[in-house]
């Protein structure tokens, strides 16, 4: 539905009236509209001529501009999408399948204040986690923060949906380390932890910001990192015994010392004879020195054959670019670069494992991966450690004790035009079906931040609690009901909505 000229003019007038300057408003006739829209699009699948576009992008530089945008949009019955880092797998921060809509792009709200005396920081939603890591290390070499691997992830989306990375076994999720928040609610008011109350604060630490308000900033607790950490990447393919090593790794990776994180990245590659094979890359961060790591691995995982020359000691902040894929000793200042690192079109899905997969299971999985022509990637991240100590209801993120691994499946959609896209999508959907017998059941769980509209979605704003429960339980298990009740309290008119948002639920009197 195109927006009428009258509404268009009237919302612009409303924003001017509320002191949002012209130069922060981008309509389709503004020269830099497309540059701004595309600036943080991470998935090229949602950057095509037919992708629905916002009729207006507001790029606030002050918190009051966010309030004005919420008030003017609500009064005009308009839908907004909030974008921080633009990494949403389904593009929901800048695409609505039920237009018209406007985008509130927070990239200019990106200040970071690190308080080394108290070991805390206030970080605005539009900052990236790369910027956050860099600013923390600049002030204190033995402080860090446990969030995701990709430096361009936005604080607003990543932290509000959970957020995990290489320090999760030691310190839990990014959301577990949030101690205060500032947000704009559906009435356009600015609230902090005290004024929003504990239920609302609970919801925005894993329930996804998009259903509840506009996160302006989070206050986080920094964590201790030793002056030296050790990293390694060791890749093994099928002919080198990848199946046996993977199966052993699965039996122990979630039980190892909390300071040790070893993930597995599984890919279809070509071997020296140009035949397709599977390569498993074990990527590891140890919050300690090389000698101790070698002793730990020698004792619990000798099958890996790890040698001193496979390991590199470095500072924690140097390990961040390493895990982001910069393996040539790039300076940490690369973390300040906000440009998307990849320019890919892709589809991803996620699962949790509640028991290790057997060697026979892995053999079947490899066969299935090798059967087609797809260049698929599977990333398996071990949980355990600190994750086991936090109860399922402590935050909306319920995948705690008993969720041994998170799995992510990824497939590129770029090759072969529209026909190719359909083939790749069909492939990942059928691979996901194939995996059903190995992964969690009732519900088959998924991670909100790896958003997947295949789990269910609805016309924006029209979904019922019963319908939304289908995907809501998969992301949040029994926390879904509490999330919907919080939504009923803080946004009964369902102003903050998208194709997969939490609908309001009201107590039955
Ligand atoms: P984006 O701006 O697209 O927002 C995502 C969602 O949050 C949208 O619904 C949006 O409306 C909402 N939102 C954003 N800002 C908001 C605000 N201020 N207030 C309210 N709602 C807001 N995850 C992980 O846990 N560990 C990892 O290592 C990685 N790595 C990774 C790499 C790459 C390349 C991608 C594309 C994604 C990941 N992720 C990840 C997933 C990531 O955590 C997830 O996509 C986050 O939602 C991204 O947050 P952004 O702010 O960047 O996204």
From TrEMBL:
Record InterPro entries: BBE (IPR012951), FAD-bd_PCMH (IPR016166), FAD-bd_PCMH-like_sf (IPR036318), FAD-bd_PCMH_sub1 (IPR016167), FAD-bd_PCMH_sub2 (IPR016169), Oxid_FAD_bind_N (IPR006094)
Domain FAD-binding PCMH-type: residue ranges: 50-225
Entry's Gene Ontology molecular function annotations: FAD binding; oxidoreductase activity
Keywords annotated in UniProt: Disulfide bond, FAD, Flavoprotein, Glycoprotein, Signal
Family of this protein: Belongs to the oxygen-dependent FAD-linked oxidoreductase family.
SUPFAM superfamilies the UniProt entry points to: FAD-binding/transporter-associated domain-like (SSF56176)
Cofactor annotation: FAD
Domain of life: Eukaryota
Descriptive protein name: Berberine bridge enzyme-like 15
Underlying gene: LOC103719629
